[in-house]
TrEMBL record:
Protein name in the entry: Polysaccharide biosynthesis protein C-terminal domain-containing protein
Coiled-coil intervals, chain numbering: none
Keyword Transmembrane helix among record annotations: yes
Species of provenance: Odoribacter laneus YIT 12061
This protein's UniProt keywords: Cell membrane, Membrane, Transmembrane, Transmembrane helix
Subcellular compartments: Cell membrane
Pfam families for the chain: Polysacc_synt_3 (PF13440)
UniProt KW DNA damage keyword: no
Amino acid sequence: MKKRLNNSFLVNIAVLASGSFIAQGIGALTIPVLTRIYTPEDLGLYTYIISIAAIFLSVVNTRYDVSIVTEPEERNVYPLIKLSLIVGGIVTIIASIGGYVFFSFKGMPGYLSIYLFVIIASYAIINVLTAYNNRRKEYKVISSVYVLRTGTQNIGAILLGILSRSIHCLLLPYAIGQLLGIKRQMKPLQKYWREVISVPANKVKEVAFKHKKQFYFSTPALLANSLSYSIITIFIEMLYGMTQVGFYSISVRLLGLPLALIGGNVSKVFLEQASAEYNEHKHFSYSFKKTFILLLIIAIPMVLVLTLLATPICTFVFGKEWAVAGKYIAILAPMFGIRFITSAMSPAFVIINRQGLELILQMVFLVCGVLSYTISQIYHLEIIDFVTLISATFSVAYLIYFLVIYKYSKKIN
């Protein structure tokens, strides 16, 4: 079994990483152009809107989409798909209305909630289709649509920005990009679509109850995690203004490249293979060890390079105005290195059905964010100090998170 897992593990990651490499390559190459077309304030406002949407993106299906991958009985897959889509529609409407109220409170245009609706609704569908593709090991499909979406979002922002610079030139390509590729992802499921629609309500309720921990624990846990990162953007705007949000957004975008390129893909494969190992042996120590070693080998040089060279690289690539983004990268790099490893293995709590524990651990991140904001506000700290507090507190939280996953990966004697 180890040989089979090892071979498929590397092949699947290679397929996913190839698409991510192209997609993130497009993203990396377009950043220097975007920083010359748009001002830090433009990119700050764009990041602010996306951060609001990001709070809901991973939990729009209340994590029932993850159960599509881990569910051992094939007869429950179609009910889970229907359940995930229904819940996704409800959450999208609620989040969009909440977004409209929030934007109005902040004195921002109400039409921004339309972008919010399109982005969240598309994710509600994409999450389900990606989970089904993952279950069927259709990694080439996942990889190809990721390239399509990322390319559309980044290149579209450049083309529209050349014609007329505005927030619409950033948000419109992002929203359109999310809609592209849905038809291709749906193709494997298309011939079974009537079966999905015809699933009776009692069966939908049955799988909802069976996987209720996803709703009660995993969803609040991931919501806390999403909020803990999105709220940093909100806090920076409140404390230091939208221009600093722009500088911070570029630093996080660059630091997020390895997470998107490798970490997210490793996580998908880890979920599928660790689930198989756990279902057969009631532990996933082999999948954990293999994944950890791979991620550690990548994380160490990545953190060293970013810590030492981020500032001169940002100055050279993006211009002198963006040197401050390099300073933020150098401070945040160690935390992102730990996050890179831990986040890839975070599906472990779903595998071992310990979503309640995950909720507690994820709440720690939210506490860290609020604590850093409170200290910075009380003592009137500079933004560099605020970013340092975020990096330090989140690093400790991720280390604790990682050690708990390690504990539960081992064999129970």
